[in-house]
TrEMBL record:
Keywords in alphabetical order: DNA-binding
Protein name in the entry: HTH tetR-type domain-containing protein
Domain HTH tetR-type: 6-66
InterPro entries: Homeodomain-like_sf, HTH-type_Tx_Regulator, HTH_TetR, TetR_C_Firmicutes
Source organism: Paenibacillus riograndensis
Coiled coil segments of this chain: none
DNA-binding recorded as keyword: yes
SUPFAM superfamilies in the cross-refs: Homeodomain-like
Start-end of DNA-binding region: 29-48
Gene Ontology molecular-function annotations: DNA binding
Length: 183
């Protein structure tokens, strides 16, 4: 991808994020996105078939970038807490993006769940899930939705507690909720 294409896609992503602050994706037209981005509709259609496709690609990019960021974490004694804290730091550093994408953007909650699920899958070894296989999908659903609710509350509250404190809380809740299967 050349520099011009990267700039076009960046402008379209920024325009979509800006529009998602006030509208759901179903209410946003390609014409609006192009007007906000300062790009011709024909240029938009060179890259995307619809506003929904643009949103889907943006979501994939966010998940990819988040995963790449988290891969750079060096192992330490408190790996689980450090991993969650790094994820929270990444959200806080990109707060404008995550406020829209985790709180306002979609008619459904699929993206936030996919993002959190992708992050938690990497933390599986830290939590040492001693859960019978028949309960694993339920356990992940619980951890994903619980963590998502905590993170959304943290964003709404203006990041009032540190990422370390919140990471410790999430990790502790996850570990304590799984203790009953250890027996």
């Amino acid at each position: 991808m050349n520099q011009r294409e990267r700039l076009t896609k960046l402008l379209l992503n920024q325009a979509l994020i800006s529009l998602l602050k006030d509208k759901s994706i179903g209410q946003i037209s390609v014409k609006e996105i192009c007007s906000t981005a300062g790009i011709n509709r024909s240029t938009f259609y060179l890259h995307y078939a619809s506003s929904f496709e643009l949103l889907e690609k943006l979501e994939q990019e966010i998940i990819h970038n988040t995963s790449e960021y988290l891969k750079k974490i060096e192992p330490s004694n408190n790996d689980g807490i450090r991993y969650i804290m790094s994820f929270l730091d990444y959200i806080k550093k990109n707060d404008a993006l995550f406020k829209v994408m985790l709180l306002k953007s979609n008619d459904t909650m699929l993206f936030p769940q996919r993002l959190i699920n992708g992050v938690l899958k990497n933390i599986d070894s830290y939590l040492q899930l001693n859960v019978p296989d028949k309960f694993k999908q339920y356990t992940y659903a619980y951890l994903v939705n619980g963590s998502l609710a905590i993170i959304q509350e943290w964003i709404k509250d203006g990041f009032s507690v540190s990422s370390l404190e919140l990471a410790q809380l999430i990790f502790s809740l996850a570990n304590h909720s799984l203790v009953s299967f250890d027996k």
